[in-house]
Amino acid sequence: MFVAVSHTDEKRIHIYSSNYESQFLKLQKVRLPKDAMLSNTFTLMDTSEKQVFLFIENHGETTPFGNLYISDEKGRSFSLSMENVIKKGAVDFEKVSSLDGTYILNKYMGNAGSHSTSFDPS
To answer: Which of 55, 95, 97, 105 has its CA 20 to 30 A from that of 67?
Structure first.
């Protein structure tokens, strides 16, 4: 379970998580890299691989991309997985169901355009 709380400046949020092992009773603040904290918008992308993929729009509200972060096995500590993931209405992130732990996404490459990238987080 994830809970978001608005910071007093209303430009960023604090995210808290809890899990089944604690019977969803013990909320703990999620640890994010400093650049991820500069946002008030996030999307939980996937939780099926015993890790959480979290998309955060931390490039500003007018840009069509953000960064993808991956958690530890408890969903409490996040690190950068992929920068500049494209979002046009929905995040361009797809799980490949026939290959466990494999995802496909589009990454913004500036003047070089965009291209498909796949990765295996394990």
So the answer is: 97
**Helix, strand, or coil here: 37?**
helix
Cβ-based neighbour number of residue 70 at 10 Å = 19
Q: Report how far residue 46's alpha carbon sits from residue 62's, in angstroms, rounded to the nearest whole number.
A: 25
Residue-wise pLDDT for 34-70, tens only, equals 777 666 678 888 888 788 898 888 776 677 888 899 9
Q: Cα–Cα distance between 122 and 22 in angstroms, integer?
A: 26
User: CB count, 10 Å around CB of 121?
Assistant: 12
Is residue 85 a contact partner of residue 55, using CB atoms and an 8 Å limit? yes
Helix (H, G, I), strand (E, B) or coil at 36: helix
pTM, full prediction: 0.75
- Count of other CB atoms within 10 angstroms of residue 106: 19
